[in-house]
Specification:
alpha/beta; Quinone Oxidoreductase, Chain A, domain 1; Rossmann fold; 7-stranded mixed β-sheet; 27% strand
Length: 336
């Protein structure tokens, strides 16, 4: 089977591998669609903090069942999606239902080889029928679930003023679900076309481009109060530090980004606001269910989000193009 491996940062290689044997209590999946995520781009550029090379990337994926265990609710040919965070079920986080931050988590495409391949064998507990959605939509579930989880962490309420800083796919996902909860959402990014996309397709009420006068414009939009909830999805330590200044008194700051750096903030300002700082990592099945319900109701503009398509065999030659801002990539899907 064709498999694409990231040997070192900046280097992808297509190889032929033997089809994986299906392990006990595992489902062998014929991979059909794989979404390219910011994590994959970070792996490619060498900035992903949890990874060892070489690695087969890809954790946003859908496919069809090739083989399933006897007695399984899954049958050959069933369309499926995969929860890519393989949690242990026993640690302190799992015992509290926080499988997204399992102590021993194994994320497909990060800690173990992922879906840039034609077949993958996955523990049955993490494989779910993709009912009522297309394979394209099912391959978008994971990144949208991260946004839905962040919004749930922030407990966004109708009428609240929300700022999303960084409007890559994860920021767009958080923005989408904040809008669906009835919040008044502003998008902040360095790229005008991303901000405009959020306003045009995702329901953002306002958009601000980072640069001279951006803070004054954010103040104007909120009558000087700034924002009840700020989400950072930039993956940039300096931007994450700056975001503390956009929190309203009594507000919350949700860090969806993960960076290698240490982040600092002014303690007097943080306490003056009695601000709440929250980390948001991955997602749980509850968040996937939230996304599925929104998709089935036609509330996710998946066709607008899917701006680019590639074939698995073309990844070594074409993957680097996804990093080019001039190409306007939001979500690329790889067809296997």
């Amino acid at each position: 089977m064709l498999t694409v491996i990231c040997d070192t940062p900046g280097t992808l290689r297509a190889v032929e591998r033997a089809m994986p044997p299906r392990g006990e209590a595992e489902v062998l999946i014929r991979v059909r669609r794989v979404g390219v995520c910011g994590t994959d781009l970070h792996i490619f550029t060498g900035t992903q903090p949890y990874l060892d090379y070489p690695r087969v990337m890809g954790h946003e994926f859908s496919g069809t069942v090739a083989e399933a265990p006897a007695g399984s609710a899954l049958a050959a040919g069933d369309p499926v999606f995969v929860m890519p965070y393989l949690s242990c079920g026993r640690c302190i986080a799992c015992r509290q239902g926080k499988t997204n931050c399992c102590v021993a988590i194994q994320v497909l495409g990060v800690h173990r080889d992922g879906a840039f391949t034609e077949y993958l064998s996955v523990p049955q507990a993490f494989v779910h029928k993709a009912e009522g959605v297309t394979l394209d939509q099912a391959a978008m579930l994971e990144f949208l679930a991260i946004g839905a989880h962040a919004v749930r962490r922030g407990d966004v309420q109708a009428g609240q003023r929300v700022l999303v800083v960084g409007t890559g796919p994860i920021g767009m996902a958080a923005l989408t679900f904040a809008v669906l909860r009835g919040a008044n959402v502003t998008a902040l990014d360095t790229r005008r076309e991303r901000v405009d996309f959020c306003c045009r397709h995702l329901g953002a009420h306002a958009g601000v481009v980072i640069g001279d006068g951006d803070e004054a414009e954010l103040a104007r939009l909120t009558d000087g109060d700034f924002f009840d909830i700020v989400f950072d999805a930039t993956g940039n330590a300096r931007a994450m530090e700056r975001g503390f200044g956009f929190i309203a008194h009594g507000g919350k700051y949700v860090l969806v980004s993960v960076v290698r750096d240490t982040i600092a903030f002014a303690d007097p300002e943080f306490h003056k606001r009695e601000a709440t700082l929250l980390g948001s990592r991955n997602a749980t099945m509850e968040d996937f269910d939230t996304v599925l319900a929104a998709m089935r109701a036609g509330r996710i503009p998946h066709q607008a989000l899917n701006t680019h398509r590639l074939a698995l065999a073309d990844l070594p030659a074409d993957f680097a193009q996804l990093l080019d801002p001039s190409r306007g990539v939001v979500k690329a899907i790889v067809e296997c």
